[in-house]
Amino acid sequence: MAEVAEKGSISIHTENIFPIIKKFLYSDHEIFLRELVSNAVDATQKLKKLSSLGEFGGELGDVRIEVKFDKEKRTITVSDKGLGMTGEEIKKYINQIAFSGATEFVEKFKDKTDAKDIIGKFGLGFYSAFMVADKVEVVSKSFKDNTEAARWICDGSTEFELTSATKEGRGTDVILHINADSDEFLEESRLKGILEKYCKFLPVEIKFGTKDESVEDGEDQDGKKKFKTVTTDNIINNPAPLWAKSPTELKDEDYISFYKELYPFSEDPLFWIHLNVDYPFNLTGILYFPKVKNDFEIQKNKIQLYSRQVFITDEVKDVVPDFLMLLHGVIDSPDIPLNVSRSYLQSDGNVKKISQHITKKVADKLQELFKKDRVDFEKKWDDVNIFVKYGIISDEKFYDRAKDFTLLKNVDKQYFTIEEYKEKISANQTDKDGSLVYLYTTDAGKQDSFIQAAKNKSYDVLLLDGVLDNHFINTFEQKLEKTQIKRVDSEIVDKLIDKDTKMESVLSKEDEEKVKAIFEKAINNKAMTVAIESLSTDELPVVITMSEWMRRMKDMAKMGGGGYAFMGGMPDNYNVFINGNHAITQKILKAENEDQQTKLAKQAFDLALLSQNMLTGADLTSFIKRSIEMVG
C-alpha cells in the first residue's frame, strides 16, 4: 500500500453520523447501489457537459459505467470514466458531507447552459455505502491535465486516510468491502435485481458482467443459417427511454413496445399521454390507460416514479391523483429528490402542481379522443369509464372538465352524453314535481322483469353495473338539479316516476284488507311490509322492492363506504306490493278455504322472490314441491 500522505477527521456535525445513516436515513439497504451508480452517472454527465461547452478538450471515448463484485475478496466496485477527483477535491466533496459540488458547478457554468439538469450531489448518497461495507475505498483521477490519482479509505469511523495512487485513466472507482451482515449483496442475482430495479433507464450505459448471445455465422452446405455463441458485455439499462424523447419522433408502435418493456405480460393499452413540461416545473413521462374493467384494486402501484431516469418508487399516491392510480407508466421529475419521503410529497408545492397538471392532461386527452372519433371512444368507454367516474367521485374540479365527455350507457347498449340523455328522457321521465328521474339497473339479468315493466311505459333504463357505480350515482345526483336517480326495482313501476295518476281498484276496502291479511300470514316475515296497489292487469301479481335509499346505503356499506358502515348491520327491509287488479288476487279471494288462500298467496310471493333470485334453500325446495302439486 502507498505511504500514508495524510490523515484527518471527516468534517461532520455529529460523531454519530454513520449509525444515523444506517438506521434512519435509508430504510432499505439495497439503496446503496442506486446511490453509487447515480453518483457515477452524475460524474459522467458533468464531463459530457464540460466537453460540449469546450471546457474539456480531451476525447470522451468510452464512458460506460461498470459494476463488479468479487465474492472471494468480498468487494463490490462501481467504476466510472467521468470527471474524477484530485486529492483536494476528495477532501472537499467527500469529507465535508454538508457541502455539494453541485452548487459550485452550477455557479461556474450557469451562464453557458442549463447546467442544473445534470447536477447530482456527491454527499450523503455516497455514505449510504457504509450500510453494507465496513471499509470503503475511493480511487480517483481527475480529468484535468497533470493531476495525480488519489486513494481515500475510511472504515466507517470519522477517521480517514488519503494517499496518492496509481490509476491509468480518468474517473472514479468506489470499492466496498462488504461487512459480515451483508452477504446477500455478494450474490449476482441480488445485485442484478437491484440494478434492474433502480438503474434500468439511467442515461449512461451500465455494464454488469457478460452474457452469451446467439449470432448468425454464415450458412452450412445446405444453405441453412448457422449460429454461434458469443460472449458480450451485459448492459443492464436502456439509456434512452421513450419518455426522454420528443413525441414528434415517436410512432404508436414505439409506445406499445415500451409498454411491453415495462409490463411484459399485459394486454396492449387503450391509449397513452406523453408528458413533457419544463415550466413551472420539470416533468416528463408517459401514462398509459390499461384495460381495467371492474377489477381495479390489483392494478394499483403500476406507475413508476423517476428522478433524472433513476427509479425512486412505484408508490406515487401523493404525486398522482388517487383516481389516476389505476394508470400505468412512468413519471420523471428532477424536482423530486431521490431520497423522497411521504411527508415531502404531501407538502411540496411542485408535487401538488404536478398532480394538478396530470389531471388536466388526462382530461384534455379524453376530450380530444371523444371529439376526434366518437364511435371509437364509445368502444373504449367500458374500459375508460372507471377512470372518469373515479375522478368525478374524488376530484371536484375533474367533473367540470369531464362532464362533456362522460357517457351514460343504457340497457340497449346506446351511449349518451349527460346533456344528450337529459334531452332524451325529459319528456317522458319528469315527475309531477318537475324532477327528472333517471332509472338504472345494476344487473340487467336479475332485474329484467322490472326493466321490461319500465320499457312498457317507454321509460329508458341505464346500465350502471360497475364496481364504482354506487358511489358515482350519489355524486352524480348531487351534481344535477331537480334530478332523482332510482334503481328500476326500487318501486313498482307506477311509483318510479310519480305522475299523480292513479288506476281504479277492482277491490273494495274490505277485500283489500282481506288480501293484505292473507299475504301477511303466508309470508310471515316482519321484514316484509305488505301493501295493496291498483296496477294494470298486465303487471305482476306481486312485486318486491327495497327503497332506493335503503338499498343504496347498504350497497355503500358493502363497499366500505365510511359513514355508511353502520347500515351493513341493519336488517334488510322490503316492500311487498300486491296487485289488487290481477286475476290471481281474485283467485285467492275466491279460494275454497283459508289454507288454499294461504297456499296460493305463498306461491305468488315465492314467484316474486324467484324473479329476483331471492328464493333459496328450503324455501326454494318447498316452492318446487308446491308447484308440482299445483300442476299435477
Automatic annotation (TrEMBL):
GO terms for molecular function: ATP binding; ATP hydrolysis activity; ATP-dependent protein folding chaperone; unfolded protein binding. Keywords: ATP-binding, Chaperone, Cytoplasm, Nucleotide-binding, Stress response. The keyword ATP-binding applies. ATP binds at residues 35, 39, 80, 85, 100-101, 172, 342. The keyword Chaperone applies. It holds the Pfam family HATPase_c_3. It comes from the Bacteria. InterPro entries: HATPase_C_sf (IPR036890), Heat_shock_protein_90_CS (IPR019805), HSP90_C (IPR037196), Hsp90_fam (IPR001404), Hsp90_N (IPR020575), Ribosomal_Su5_D2-typ_SF (IPR020568). Gene3D superfamilies: 3.30.230.80, 3.40.50.11260, Heat shock protein 90, C-terminal domain (1.20.120.790), Histidine kinase-like ATPase, C-terminal domain (3.30.565.10). Belongs to the heat shock protein 90 family. This is Chaperone protein HtpG.
